[in-house]
Amino acid sequence: MSIHLFEHNEKAYQAVISMLDETGMAAVIHPTGTGKTMIAFKLIEDHPLNHFLWLSPSEYIYQTQLENLHMEFSNVTYLSYSRLMNNKDSMSKLQPDYIILDEFHRCGAAEWGKTVRALLEMYPDAKRLGLSATNIRYLDNQRNMAEEIFDGNIASEMTLGEAIIRNILPEPKYVIAMYSYQKELQQLKKKIKNLSNQGLVAENEKLFEQLRRALEQADGLDQVFEKHMAKKDGKYILFCSDKEHMDEMKALAGEWFRRVDKSPHVYTAFYNDAATNREFAAFKQDNSAHLKLLFCIDMLNEGIHVNDVDGVILLRPTVSPIVYLQQIGRALSTGVTKKPVIFDLVNNFDSLYSIDCLKDEMREAMLLFPTVYGKKDHFDDCFRIVDETKDCRDLFLKLQENLHSAWETYYIAAKQWYQENRDLKVPKRYVTPTGLTLGAWINTQRRVRSGGMSGNLTPEKIKKLDAIGMIWDVSDYGWSEALHALQDYYNAHGNLDIKAKYETADGFKLGRWIGNLRAKVKAKGLDQVLTGEQQQQLAKLGMIWDRNSEKWELYFKAAEAYYKTHGNLDVATKYVTEDGIPLGRWIANISSQVHGENTTRSPLTDEQRQRLAGIGFSLEKKSARQWNEKYELAKTYYETHGDLNVPVSYCVNGIRLGRWISNIRTKRKNPGASGMVLDEIRIQRLDSIGMNWK
Q1: Domains along the chain?
Q2: pLDDT tens digit string along 223-274?
Q3: What's the pTM?
Q4: What would the DSSP string read from start to end of 280-313?
């Protein structure tokens, strides 16, 4: 069987071949559902004598892609990004001619990215191909991964809007509705209550009441689904936030879909395990006359495609355009003629920036490809959006516009805080005496400024906040502020054993700050990083510079105390001291380190080895120690009886010495058999005490 590409992918493939020959690297940026993975498989098929290394976010994605292809390749080594990260020491064995980076935008993740960069540096001559629906990490400072990994060598690029306009992907029907609005109503009510102008309060309360009544009179979801699910026995994927949210949504399925199918078939997919595999396979194979619903979390966001899906239902709010496009792309497939439907139930009253972005892409594509749709007087003729909550949304927007003055109310409160405290370090949970959630508002301004959430933070507003000491990045604290936070932590806990993710009440990431300080001191030395006064200040608080060394000393003292009491270190693995120290587990881990069985931990120093030996810790492997103990018993037997003709049933001190001698003879006769090690040194030692090998 040979791989045949769609016309758009064939053109992309030829561009990839040309770019790989010229620069050694190429990226393909096509939307979900366009079959871009086939480009990589075609490359593998056309180069059977070359070795390919395929990297992707999960093995499940890769295996599903292979299953859909119905082909096997002997020249491909597959690794997930996480597995590559956990096996860095084995990278030298890979020796790839080509490296495929599937969903390459994920290479921007901190730890995955380090490993991928190390791999690419190790194999600079390997040609690399990247596949992704988007090269931009929108929530990571707009990083362009095509620039970072492929030096901007993009062989083919296509937006989702272009794919729809060019008829590569089917044109979806987009339905906007809501399943939850109580939270928004509560927030609006609180904002109205906090207005200082009573005239504004009265006006906005009237609008609020109109909005509440409009929402109550709007069609319920059961009617929305009945109206827009043209195929009553279709397949739909429902995206949820997490397991708890998914369980909550599944419980509502009977109510929501009762007008479509009173007994829908419900499936779940949220882990890469056998149960999920079975559920996913059953969903794909279900051709019954019932409505088919697949509830999932993140595992279907990327790489995995179901060809006969009739639509998706978005239940998960997201500020990530990547996640949004991946999710709606599950309903869009190249070569499919049916019109899928997308139910967006989570935009609620907030911005429709994702929709707006898609509409802009389609408008641009219409200018580039006018012959596909022909001349259109109205854009809405080519992309149908059904807003079941339009009247409610209009009321909400009007109410929001009226409440814009609330920003000034919060600003006045922030200014008053500054005048009283000479800073704007407002705790996250701080509420003013009048009920304004000032701490949360300050944090919201930071998130809007950083792009973490949508909002209207104009340059004028930023300037006004700067004038009263706004701290945009709470990690950018001076020494005195950080020391104050450390003192508060010490007063509360009696130490500076601060977890890496610890954050103060006002949002200062103290755990990260102190971790960075330790790293600087380790790299440059204490005197190069801190002044003498700063060192003294930290010493007074019991600063821990090396947490691992500190922990080792604590556990060693526990082991030393155990040895003094019991005369040995024969500690059960599950043994825990009265102080709560898991001494048994620590002894087991130390043993693994000493004997080279655990390579993930730093090796013990010579000093540590000597100290352990001083409290009875054996530096021999357990198996070697047990062999030597039995040898000494055999030696004693020889000295007493003058031979080693030990009866098979002979036991001493609970050890079946006779059986051990018999096993040794068997091992000598069959060296290839599994079991104990019987090398020449051990044979010579046994010969010296009269071993009878017959």
Answers
A1: 7-158 (3.40.50.300), 173-178+219-388 (3.40.50.300), 407-466 (no CATH), 479-540 (no CATH), 547-614 (no CATH), 624-687 (no CATH)
A2: 889 988 988 899 998 888 888 888 888 888 888 899 999 999 999 987 666 6
A3: 0.50
A4: HHHHHH--SSS-EEEEESSTTSSS---TT--EEE
